[in-house]
Amino acid sequence: MVFKTIGKPGKPIALLIHAMFATSNMFNPLIELMQEEYFIVLPTLSAHTTSDIETPPFQSAHAESTEIINYLRRNNFCDIEILLGSSLGGIVAFDIFIRRQLTIHKIFLDGAPFIHLPNPIIKIMETIFSRVSYKSAKYPCKSNILDKMFPTMSTEMKKVCGHMSDRTIKNLTKTCYTYQLPKLIELSENQSVTFIYGTAEIARFSLPAIRKFKNCNFIIKKGYAHCSFLIEEPENYLELLQNT
Description:
It is built from 10 helices and 7 strands. By secondary structure, the protein is an alpha/beta fold. It has one domain: Rossmann fold. Strands 1-3-2-4-5-6-7 form a 7-stranded mixed beta sheet. It is globular and about 50 Å long. InterPro entries: AB_hydrolase_1, AB_hydrolase_fold.
């Protein structure tokens, strides 16, 4: 895992965790708007690299959250104003939150796939992810689903796909579709959890499983696809982060 920080130490800390096949660069438009007011911590998850240097495979959300927590504690970044996780990053962010080893004020989980699928369907999803990864790496100039879903990010995402092992794909799929939610979410004073979904994304089918958390916020963006509100409207997205 690689970490970078942007902004001035002493400012409120924002921890941003990216989506599958992406890197922390997916937040660049948002970072430009936040860097004067926040000290931003940006992990790039295991195996999500564009470098030819061999890196360890992605193991699990818990392994990723452990590494992030350890980094934050080593550097005394233990009071987090905003924790934002996008898609896969939302699962990792949630795991950081529920471990309660840091003080976190606002937690935002955008498009996190809290969907528990049966094993045969998980195997199908693993095959789909493997094909997307393989074809993206082998034919980077050929348009595919990454170009359709993430037109501004797809070039880098295809490079990331070129460094994904079968083991990483298997573990990513398992993480996305077997994560066990707690029965309750306990919030401390002045703490909030906000789930964000677009009506045009598959991850919205997580809503029946998480609606039970009555003390959380739910923001449903009509017409938006997976991560598209963040990517297309960073100014409005930051306003949401600051005012929710």
